[in-house]
Automatic annotation (TrEMBL):
Protein known as: NADPH-dependent FMN reductase
Enzyme class label: oxidoreductase
Pfam family, any one: FMN_red
EC number assigned by the record: 1.-.-.-
Molecular function per GO: oxidoreductase activity
Keyword vocabulary terms for this entry: Oxidoreductase
Source species, domain of life: Bacteria
Source species of the chain: Paenibacillus chartarius
The family this protein is said to belong to: Belongs to the azoreductase type 2 family.
Residue ranges annotated for the NADPH-dependent FMN reductase-like domain, each copy included: 1-140
InterPro entries with a match to the protein in the record: Flavoprotein-like_sf, FMN_Rdtase-like_dom, NAD(P)H-dep_reductase
PANTHER family xrefs: CHROMATE REDUCTASE, NAD(P)H-DEPENDENT FMN REDUCTASE LOT6
Amino acid sequence: MKIALIAGSNRRNATSTKLLQYMEGVLRGRGIATTLIDLFETPLPMYSPDAEVLDGHTSAMKRAVAEADAVILGTPEYHGSISGALKNALDFMGAGEFSGKPVLSVSSSGGAVGVSSLTQLQAMVRNMHGINSPEWLSLGGDARQFETDGAPADAAIRQRVERTLDSLVGLAALLRPHAGAVSK
């Protein structure tokens, strides 16, 4: 099984990126192949439908998502919406990358929770013909603390991440049986 993760912040040390890095480690620990696209580390040019040639970062992102059995989209919440960096990345893609794939939406917000950004992400996933995971994950306020090893500081958050990933991996196995069995 392959899972692509897109960390949609263009901020150094963003908690949404830390959360996706932790999730990637959990998935790799389960023997799942992952590709993390960090939009801070590998920024993309501004989307234009008139662009005739894609740069290397954009081509690599599109390929990773197209080859994945499932996708995790992570974003901070800005003004009740997803980050501009993630919206720009998604504009480069569509049904060719997302059709029939389970997609988990994840947010980390300075406020209480990132429900507005998660709701908008799920609408975008539907428009790209992806299948929204029945779970989503939102960290808000004090829940956005991480240990030096990258794990969420709160044990309940770590358990929630595990359950959310269980749900996504299970859905991916049902929808894409060629991906093979996954062991815990």
